[in-house]
Design a protein that fits this description.
With 441 residues, the chain is α+β, with helices and mostly antiparallel strands. It is 45% helix and 11% strand.
C-alpha cells in the first residue's frame, strides 16, 4: 500500500523522479507476480494425494492432474482456498497452479528466466497453457524456442503468434486434430449483451465461409449508399446483414432492395427487472440498461410485454422437504443473482441451490438457507471443508478450511477479519465480528 507520505512526495518529484518511482513500483509488481507463482507451486506440493491420511480413499480417488503430462496429481478442490486469498475463483486458481506446475516441471528454461527476472510471468504462463496438451518432450522443445522472446520485447499479439506457430510445429498431428475439432464448432448465435443495450451476434465458421459472408455484406452495404446517404459504413454494414439474413426483407422479384416486405418478428423471452424510482433496469443475464432505451427497443420490436408482480421475498414460506419449489427458486435468484462462492462469476440460472446448513442436519428449505452455487463450488463446499451461513437476506459468510472468513453481499466478495491495532472499529466491523464469533461458536 502507498502511504499518504509517498503520495505527497510524488507531488514534489520532477518528471525524471516520477519515471524512476514508477519503474521501481513496476519492478516490485513483477517480483510479486513471481512470488505468487512460486507459492502456487508450493501449494500443489502440499496437496499431493500422498499427503492425505492413509484412510482417505475418497480424497485419493478424486485427486487430479491439473498440469500437463508428467506432472503430479493434486487433491480435489485444493485450489479453492488458495484462490480466495488472492481474489480468484477456484477455476482461476486452478489455472494458476497448473501453470506453476508446468513451468517448474515441463518448461525449465522459461522457469529459470522467471526466477532470474528475464522472463515475464504472463508470457511464461501463456506458454504453459498453450503446451499443456503436448508431451513433455514437445513442451521442452517449445520451451527452448520461445524463451528468448518471453521477456516482453514483442507486442502481445506477436508473442501469441510465435507461440502458436511453435506449438503447431512441435505437434503437427495435434495441430491438425485441433483444426478438425475447431471446424465442428460452427455457430451463429447472439452473444452476451455488452453495455448500453447493445448486443453482439457471432458467426463462427471456416475462414472461407466467413470471407464469403464478409464479401456479401460489403457488396450489399455498397448498394445501400443511395438509400442510406447519412449512415456511416458501419451502419450500412449492419443494415446489409439484416437484409441478408431476414427472408422477409428480401426483394420479391427483381432484386430491388427497396421491395422489402418488412421485418420478421421472432418470439423471444427476456427478463427485465425494474426498481422503484430508478431510471435503470437490469436485463437478466446481460446487465444494466436505461428504461428509456429498453422502451425504445421494445417499441421498435413490437414486443408484447407481460408484467409480473413483485415477489414478497421476506414472506416466502419455507417447505418441509429437500426439494425446492419454483417460487422459492425464483425468490432465491432475485436475492442472489450470482453464484455466492467467494469471487465467483456465474450469473446464470443454471446453478445448484445449496442448503447452507445441510437439510440432513436440520437446515430448512427456505430463502434464509439457500444460495446459488455452480456444481463445482457446490462440491467444494460439500467435500473440502468450507462452511457458509446466511445471517441476512443477500448476505453470505464463508469460512475456508484454514479459518479465513469471506463476506459475500451485492457488492461482491470481501475478506473479513477482526479489527486490530489502534483503529476504532466501525459499526460494520462490530456487526461482522459478532457474526463471526457467533458463527465460530
Amino acid at each position: 500500500m502507498v502511504s499518504d507520505g509517498a503520495v505527497a512526495g510524488l507531488a514534489d518529484l520532477s518528471a525524471v523522479g516520477v519515471l524512476e518511482f514508477v519503474e521501481r513500483q513496476h519492478a516490485a509488481r513483477l517480483e510479486a507476480e513471481r512470488e505468487v507463482l512460486r507459492a502456487a507451486y508450493q501449494w500443489a506440493v502440499l496437496h499431493h494425494p500422498d499427503r492425505l491420511p492413509p484412510d482417505d480413499r475418497r480424497g485419493r480417488s478424486r485427486a487430479r492432474r491439473v498440469g500437463g503430462a508428467g506432472t503430479p496429481l493434486i487433491t480435489d478442490h485444493a485450489a479453492a482456498a488458495f484462490g480466495a486469498r488472492i481474489q480468484l475463483s477456484p477455476y482461476g486458481a486452478r489455472r494458476l497452479i497448473a501453470d506453476a506446475v508446468d513451468l517448474q516441471l515441463r518448461l525449465p528454461r522459461l522457469w529459470a528466466g522467471v526466477e532470474a527476472g528475464s522472463v515475464r510471468v504472463g508470457h511464461a504462463r501463456h506458454v504453459a497453457d498453450a503446451t499443456r496438451d503436448l508431451s513433455s518432450e514437445e513442451a521442452a522443445w517449445v520451451d527452448g524456442e520461445v524463451v528468448e522472446v518471453a521477456d516482453g520485447r514483442l507486442a502481445w499479439s506477436r508473442f501469441e503468434s510465435v507461440v502458436e506457430g511453435k506449438v503447431a510445429a512441435a505437434a503437427p498431428e495435434l495441430a491438425l486434430a485441433r483444426e478438425e475439432a475447431a471446424a465442428k464448432e460452427r455457430c451463429a448465435r447472439m452473444s452476451r449483451v455488452d453495455r448500453h443495450g447493445m448486443a453482439t451476434f457471432t458467426i463462427k465458421a471456416d475462414a472461407v465461409t466467413v470471407a464469403g459472408i464478409d464479401a456479401a455484406v460489403s457488396v450489399v452495404a455498397e448498394r445501400l449508399k443511395d438509400q442510406l446517404p447519412d449512415a456511416d459504413s458501419n451502419d450500412r454494414r449492419v443494415a446489409a446483414v439484416a437484409l441478408l439474413v431476414n427472408p422477409a426483407s428480401h426483394p420479391a422479384t427483381d432484386g430491388d432492395l427497396g421491395a422489402s416486405v418488412g421485418p420478421v418478428r421472432p418470439k423471444a423471452t427476456v427478463y427485465l427487472h425494474l426498481y422503484a424510482d430508478s431510471p435503470i433496469a437490469r436485463l437478466e443475464g446481460h446487465g444494466p440498461v436505461t428504461i428509456a432505451r429498453m422502451m425504445h427497443l421494445l417499441g421498435e420490436a413490437g414486443a408484447r410485454v407481460r408484467i409480473t408482480p413483485v415477489i414478497d421475498l421476506p414472506g416466502q414460506a419455507p417447505v418441509d422437504a429437500y426439494e425446492i419449489p419454483t417460487r422459492l427458486r425464483e425468490a432465491v435468484h432475485l436475492i442472489h443473482p450470482a453464484d455466492v462462492f467467494p469471487f465467483a462469476a456465474n450469473t446464470t440460472r443454471n446453478v445448484d441451490l445449496d442448503h447452507a446448513v445441510p437439510y440432513s442436519e436440520g437446515g430448512p428449505t427456505s430463502i434464509g438457507n439457500l444460495g446459488p452455487l455452480t456444481r463445482t463450488h457446490h462440491r467444494v463446499k460439500t467435500h473440502a471443508g468450507w462452511e457458509a451461513r446466511h445471517p441476512f437476506p443477500g448476505i453470505v459468510i464463508w469460512r475456508d478450511p484454514y479459518g479465513a472468513h469471506y463476506l459475500i453481499d451485492p457488492t461482491g466478495t470481501r475478506r473479513v477479519t477482526p479489527t486490530t491495532g489502534d483503529d476504532t472499529p466501525t459499526r460494520t466491523d462490530i456487526m461482522v465480528t459478532e457474526l463471526l464469533l457467533n458463527y465460530a461458536a
